[in-house]
Design a protein that fits this description.
Elements lengths: L1 E2 L20 E2 L6 H7 L2 H10 L12 H4 L9 H36 L16 H11 L9 H39 L4 H9 L9
Antiparallel strand pairs: 1-2
Helix pairs in contact: 1-4, 4-6
Length: about 210
C-alpha cells in the first residue's frame, strides 16, 4: 500500500486488514521484491521524471500510472537475498513505532508531558541534553521542577529506549544500501550508470 501524494518513496505491506481513505492505493501482491524496487533510489529517480508533480513537488503515483512501471525480474540469487532483508526492515520499522509509543506513554505518565510535539516523533535523533531540555519545555507547569532523582531516571530511560533504536537504524541503512545495489543489478546498471543516477539525483532521493 502507498500514499497517492508522495514526498518520499514509502511503500509498505499491510497484514492487518486496515481500511484507508481515498488517498491510499493497494497493490494486491505479497512480493517482497516489488517492495524493494518501489522503495529504491532508482525507482524514485525514475518516478521523478515520469509521474505528475503536485504542490511542493510531491509526486502523484496514481494507479493507472503505477501499472506501467517497468519492474525488472530478479534472479533467484537476488530474490533469496532480498526477501529476508525486506522482512528485517519491516521488523525494524515495527520496533521503532512501538518504541515511540512506549516513549510517549512513559513521558506522559511519569513526567507530565501531555503534548509531546514534533521533536519526540523522532526522539532517537536527539542527544541526551536536547531530550531533557525538550521534556522540561513540554512538562505541565503543575509538575514543577525535575528533582535530581527524576532527572537521573529520565536520562537512564532515554538511553534504554534510544540506543536500540539507533542501532536498528544503522542496521536498516546497511540493508537499504544492499537492496539498492541489488535493484540496480537486476536492472543491469553499469558502474557509470549508477554514478549518473546519483549525480542527477532528484530532491528527497533515498540516501543511506
Amino acid at each position: 500500500m502507498y500514499q497517492e501524494i508522495q514526498f518520499h518513496p514509502q511503500h509498505g505491506f499491510d497484514v492487518s486488514g486496515v481500511f484507508t481513505n481515498n488517498k491510499v492505493f493497494f497493490l494486491p501482491s505479497a512480493d517482497y521484491w516489488l517492495s524493494a524496487v518501489l522503495n529504491s533510489p532508482l525507482m524514485w529517480w525514475h518516478n521523478w521524471r515520469h509521474l505528475p508533480h503536485m504542490k511542493d513537488e510531491a509526486l502523484s503515483p496514481t494507479g493507472v500510472l503505477m501499472e506501467k512501471l517497468p519492474i525488472a525480474p530478479p534472479t533467484d540469487e537476488i530474490r533469496a537475498e532480498v526477501e529476508p532483508a525486506v522482512e528485517r526492515l519491516a521488523e525494524i520499522t515495527k520496533a521503532e513505532q512501538e518504541a515511540r509509543r512506549t516513549m510517549l506513554d512513559w513521558l506522559r505518565t511519569e513526567f507530565g508531558v501531555e503534548k509531546p510535539g514534533q521533536k519526540f516523533e523522532d526522539f532517537a535523533a536527539l542527544d541526551t541534553d536536547a531530550f531533557v531540555a525538550e521534556v522540561r519545555k513540554r512538562r505541565l507547569r503543575s509538575e514543577g521542577r525535575l528533582a535530581p532523582a527524576a532527572l537521573k531516571d529520565l536520562r537512564a530511560g532515554y538511553a534504554e529506549m534510544a540506543t536500540p533504536t539507533r542501532e536498528d537504524r544503522t542496521e536498516a541503512a546497511a540493508l537499504e544500501r544492499r537492496l539498492s545495489d541489488l535493484v540496480n543489478r537486476a536492472y543491469g546498471l553499469t558502474a557509470e550508470e549508477v554514478d549518473l543516477l546519483w549525480s542527477t539525483a532528484p530532491p528527497r532521493m533515498p540516501k543511506f
